[in-house]
Amino acid sequence: MEPEVEQQREQKRGRGGRPPAGREGDVDRRLLAAATKLFLERGYDGTSCDQVALDARAGKASIYARYANKQALFSAVVDTMLARSFDGDDVAAGRPLRERMAAAGLRVLADALHPDAVALLRLVVAELPRFSQGGPRADQLVWQPAVRRVATAIALHDPSRIDAAIATAERFIDVAVMPVVMRAMLGEPAEQLLAAGPDRIADAIVLLAATGALDDWAESPDQESGND
Protein backbone atom coordinates (compact mmCIF):
# COMPACT_ATOMS: atom_id res chain seq x y z
CA MET A 1 0.00 0.00 0.00
CA GLU A 2 1.32 3.45 -0.89
CA PRO A 3 2.30 5.56 2.17
CA GLU A 4 0.05 8.48 1.30
CA VAL A 5 -2.93 6.17 0.88
CA GLU A 6 -2.21 4.54 4.23
CA GLN A 7 -1.93 7.96 5.86
CA GLN A 8 -5.24 9.09 4.38
CA ARG A 9 -6.82 5.83 5.48
CA GLU A 10 -5.73 6.39 9.06
CA GLN A 11 -7.18 9.90 8.97
CA LYS A 12 -10.54 8.80 7.52
CA ARG A 13 -10.90 5.39 9.15
CA GLY A 14 -13.59 5.10 11.77
CA ARG A 15 -14.15 2.24 14.13
CA GLY A 16 -13.06 -1.08 12.67
CA GLY A 17 -14.91 -4.35 12.35
CA ARG A 18 -17.50 -5.78 10.03
CA PRO A 19 -20.45 -3.43 9.38
CA PRO A 20 -23.80 -4.44 10.86
CA ALA A 21 -26.05 -6.38 8.48
CA GLY A 22 -28.31 -3.39 8.04
CA ARG A 23 -25.39 -1.27 6.81
CA GLU A 24 -23.91 -3.70 4.31
CA GLY A 25 -26.08 -2.28 1.53
CA ASP A 26 -24.75 1.17 2.35
CA VAL A 27 -21.19 -0.14 2.09
CA ASP A 28 -22.01 -1.63 -1.32
CA ARG A 29 -23.35 1.70 -2.55
CA ARG A 30 -20.36 3.63 -1.25
CA LEU A 31 -17.89 1.22 -2.82
CA LEU A 32 -19.58 1.37 -6.22
CA ALA A 33 -19.95 5.15 -6.10
CA ALA A 34 -16.29 5.60 -5.20
CA ALA A 35 -15.15 3.08 -7.82
CA THR A 36 -17.27 4.72 -10.53
CA LYS A 37 -15.86 8.16 -9.76
CA LEU A 38 -12.27 6.94 -9.71
CA PHE A 39 -12.50 4.82 -12.86
CA LEU A 40 -14.05 7.70 -14.81
CA GLU A 41 -11.56 10.26 -13.49
CA ARG A 42 -8.34 8.20 -13.44
CA GLY A 43 -8.94 5.33 -15.82
CA TYR A 44 -8.47 1.66 -15.09
CA ASP A 45 -4.73 1.67 -14.41
CA GLY A 46 -4.96 4.83 -12.32
CA THR A 47 -7.53 3.33 -9.96
CA SER A 48 -6.53 1.10 -7.06
CA CYS A 49 -8.66 -0.93 -4.70
CA ASP A 50 -6.87 0.82 -1.83
CA GLN A 51 -8.06 4.22 -3.03
CA VAL A 52 -11.59 2.94 -3.67
CA ALA A 53 -11.78 1.63 -0.10
CA LEU A 54 -10.40 4.89 1.23
CA ASP A 55 -12.84 7.08 -0.68
CA ALA A 56 -15.73 4.78 0.27
CA ARG A 57 -14.74 4.93 3.95
CA ALA A 58 -14.54 1.15 4.02
CA GLY A 59 -11.88 -1.44 4.70
CA LYS A 60 -10.05 -3.04 1.81
CA ALA A 61 -11.42 -6.37 3.06
CA SER A 62 -14.89 -5.04 2.24
CA ILE A 63 -13.95 -4.91 -1.43
CA TYR A 64 -12.51 -8.42 -1.61
CA ALA A 65 -15.46 -9.84 0.29
CA ARG A 66 -17.58 -8.69 -2.66
CA TYR A 67 -15.26 -8.63 -5.69
CA ALA A 68 -12.47 -11.05 -6.51
CA ASN A 69 -10.24 -8.38 -8.03
CA LYS A 70 -10.23 -4.95 -9.67
CA GLN A 71 -11.60 -6.35 -12.92
CA ALA A 72 -14.62 -7.75 -11.07
CA LEU A 73 -15.12 -4.38 -9.39
CA PHE A 74 -14.97 -2.64 -12.77
CA SER A 75 -17.51 -5.09 -14.18
CA ALA A 76 -19.80 -4.30 -11.25
CA VAL A 77 -19.49 -0.58 -12.02
CA VAL A 78 -20.52 -1.26 -15.62
CA ASP A 79 -23.46 -3.43 -14.52
CA THR A 80 -24.63 -0.80 -12.04
CA MET A 81 -24.52 1.96 -14.62
CA LEU A 82 -26.47 -0.20 -17.05
CA ALA A 83 -29.11 -0.97 -14.45
CA ARG A 84 -29.46 2.71 -13.65
CA SER A 85 -29.51 3.94 -17.24
CA PHE A 86 -31.61 1.36 -19.07
CA ASP A 87 -34.49 0.64 -16.75
CA GLY A 88 -37.83 2.05 -15.75
CA ASP A 89 -39.29 2.49 -19.24
CA ASP A 90 -42.98 3.25 -19.22
CA VAL A 91 -44.22 2.64 -22.76
CA ALA A 92 -47.76 3.91 -23.10
CA ALA A 93 -49.94 1.15 -24.52
CA GLY A 94 -52.18 3.68 -26.24
CA ARG A 95 -49.43 5.06 -28.48
CA PRO A 96 -49.06 3.71 -32.03
CA LEU A 97 -46.02 1.74 -33.06
CA ARG A 98 -44.02 4.57 -34.60
CA GLU A 99 -44.55 6.83 -31.60
CA ARG A 100 -43.46 4.06 -29.23
CA MET A 101 -40.33 3.45 -31.29
CA ALA A 102 -39.55 7.17 -31.38
CA ALA A 103 -40.00 7.52 -27.61
CA ALA A 104 -37.80 4.49 -26.92
CA GLY A 105 -35.17 5.76 -29.35
CA LEU A 106 -35.02 9.19 -27.73
CA ARG A 107 -34.63 7.64 -24.29
CA VAL A 108 -31.82 5.44 -25.58
CA LEU A 109 -30.03 8.46 -27.03
CA ALA A 110 -30.42 10.48 -23.83
CA ASP A 111 -28.97 7.67 -21.73
CA ALA A 112 -26.21 6.77 -24.20
CA LEU A 113 -25.07 10.40 -24.51
CA HIS A 114 -24.93 11.06 -20.78
CA PRO A 115 -21.36 12.21 -20.02
CA ASP A 116 -20.71 9.31 -17.64
CA ALA A 117 -21.99 6.78 -20.18
CA VAL A 118 -19.75 8.19 -22.93
CA ALA A 119 -16.74 8.29 -20.59
CA LEU A 120 -17.33 4.71 -19.47
CA LEU A 121 -17.73 3.50 -23.05
CA ARG A 122 -14.43 5.15 -23.99
CA LEU A 123 -12.78 3.46 -21.03
CA VAL A 124 -14.15 0.03 -21.89
CA VAL A 125 -13.06 0.40 -25.53
CA ALA A 126 -9.57 1.47 -24.44
CA GLU A 127 -9.31 -1.56 -22.15
CA LEU A 128 -10.62 -4.15 -24.64
CA PRO A 129 -7.24 -5.96 -24.91
CA ARG A 130 -7.15 -6.35 -21.15
CA PHE A 131 -10.65 -7.82 -21.04
CA SER A 132 -10.28 -10.11 -24.06
CA GLN A 133 -10.68 -13.16 -21.81
CA GLY A 134 -13.63 -11.79 -19.87
CA GLY A 135 -15.02 -8.66 -18.29
CA PRO A 136 -17.30 -5.99 -19.75
CA ARG A 137 -17.71 -5.62 -23.50
CA ALA A 138 -18.46 -2.41 -25.35
CA ASP A 139 -21.67 -3.78 -26.87
CA GLN A 140 -23.06 -4.38 -23.37
CA LEU A 141 -23.01 -0.67 -22.63
CA VAL A 142 -25.24 0.62 -25.42
CA TRP A 143 -26.13 -1.74 -28.24
CA GLN A 144 -27.60 -4.71 -26.37
CA PRO A 145 -29.77 -2.81 -23.85
CA ALA A 146 -30.82 -0.33 -26.54
CA VAL A 147 -31.99 -3.14 -28.83
CA ARG A 148 -33.89 -4.76 -25.98
CA ARG A 149 -35.60 -1.48 -25.10
CA VAL A 150 -36.77 -0.78 -28.65
CA ALA A 151 -37.80 -4.41 -29.21
CA THR A 152 -39.95 -4.21 -26.08
CA ALA A 153 -41.67 -1.12 -27.49
CA ILE A 154 -42.24 -2.83 -30.84
CA ALA A 155 -43.70 -6.02 -29.34
CA LEU A 156 -45.68 -4.23 -26.64
CA HIS A 157 -49.00 -5.78 -27.69
CA ASP A 158 -47.50 -9.24 -28.25
CA PRO A 159 -44.61 -9.84 -25.81
CA SER A 160 -44.36 -13.46 -26.95
CA ARG A 161 -42.83 -12.10 -30.19
CA ILE A 162 -40.04 -10.17 -28.50
CA ASP A 163 -37.37 -12.32 -30.22
CA ALA A 164 -38.82 -11.46 -33.63
CA ALA A 165 -38.91 -7.77 -32.69
CA ILE A 166 -35.20 -7.83 -31.89
CA ALA A 167 -34.25 -8.10 -35.57
CA THR A 168 -36.21 -4.92 -36.37
CA ALA A 169 -34.84 -3.17 -33.28
CA GLU A 170 -31.27 -4.02 -34.27
CA ARG A 171 -31.71 -2.32 -37.64
CA PHE A 172 -33.26 0.71 -35.94
CA ILE A 173 -30.42 1.05 -33.42
CA ASP A 174 -27.76 0.58 -36.09
CA VAL A 175 -29.21 3.47 -38.12
CA ALA A 176 -30.52 5.85 -35.46
CA VAL A 177 -28.24 5.42 -32.45
CA MET A 178 -24.83 3.86 -33.00
CA PRO A 179 -23.51 6.47 -35.46
CA VAL A 180 -24.48 9.15 -32.94
CA VAL A 181 -22.70 7.33 -30.11
CA MET A 182 -19.57 7.08 -32.24
CA ARG A 183 -19.65 10.82 -32.91
CA ALA A 184 -20.02 11.47 -29.19
CA MET A 185 -17.01 9.27 -28.46
CA LEU A 186 -15.02 11.32 -30.96
CA GLY A 187 -15.85 14.47 -29.04
CA GLU A 188 -18.88 16.01 -30.74
CA PRO A 189 -20.98 17.87 -28.13
CA ALA A 190 -23.82 15.78 -26.77
CA GLU A 191 -26.17 18.77 -26.80
CA GLN A 192 -25.88 19.09 -30.59
CA LEU A 193 -26.35 15.36 -31.09
CA LEU A 194 -29.40 15.26 -28.85
CA ALA A 195 -30.93 18.25 -30.63
CA ALA A 196 -30.68 16.40 -33.93
CA GLY A 197 -31.95 13.16 -32.37
CA PRO A 198 -35.68 13.45 -33.14
CA ASP A 199 -35.08 14.00 -36.87
CA ARG A 200 -32.57 11.16 -37.06
CA ILE A 201 -34.95 8.80 -35.28
CA ALA A 202 -37.88 9.84 -37.49
CA ASP A 203 -35.76 9.22 -40.60
CA ALA A 204 -34.77 5.77 -39.31
CA ILE A 205 -38.41 4.83 -38.74
CA VAL A 206 -39.38 6.02 -42.23
CA LEU A 207 -36.50 3.97 -43.70
CA LEU A 208 -37.59 0.83 -41.85
CA ALA A 209 -41.18 1.32 -42.95
CA ALA A 210 -40.11 1.82 -46.58
CA THR A 211 -38.22 -1.47 -46.54
CA GLY A 212 -41.20 -3.32 -45.10
CA ALA A 213 -39.52 -3.98 -41.74
CA LEU A 214 -42.58 -2.73 -39.86
CA ASP A 215 -45.19 -4.58 -41.90
CA ASP A 216 -45.32 -7.51 -39.49
CA TRP A 217 -46.10 -5.12 -36.67
CA ALA A 218 -49.18 -3.44 -38.13
CA GLU A 219 -51.68 -2.86 -35.33
CA SER A 220 -55.43 -2.74 -35.23
CA PRO A 221 -57.16 0.54 -34.35
CA ASP A 222 -58.13 -0.97 -31.00
CA GLN A 223 -54.51 -1.73 -30.18
CA GLU A 224 -53.38 1.75 -31.17
CA SER A 225 -56.03 3.30 -28.95
CA GLY A 226 -55.09 1.07 -26.03
CA ASN A 227 -58.40 -0.82 -26.00
CA ASP A 228 -57.03 -4.26 -26.77
Give the topology.
Elements: H1 3-12, H2 24-42, H3 49-55, H4 60-64, H5 70-85, H6 97-112, H7 115-126, H8 138-141, H9 143-154, H10 162-176, H11 178-185, H12 190-195, H13 197-210, H14 221-224
Helix pairs in contact: 2-3, 2-5, 6-9, 6-13, 9-10, 10-13
Structure commentary:
The protein has 228 residues and is mostly helical. The protein has 2 domains: 3-70, Homeodomain-like (Arc Repressor Mutant, subunit A), CATH 1.10.10.60; 86-215, no CATH class. 65% of the residues lie in helices and 0% in strands. The protein is built from 14 helices and no strands. It has helices at 3-12, 24-42, 49-55, 60-64, 70-85, 97-112, 115-126, 138-141, 143-154, 162-176, 178-185, 190-195, 197-210, 221-224. α2 (24-42) crosses α3 (49-55) and α6 packs across α13. The longest helix is centred in the first third of the chain and has 19 residues, at 24-42. Mean pLDDT is 83; it is low at 5-22.
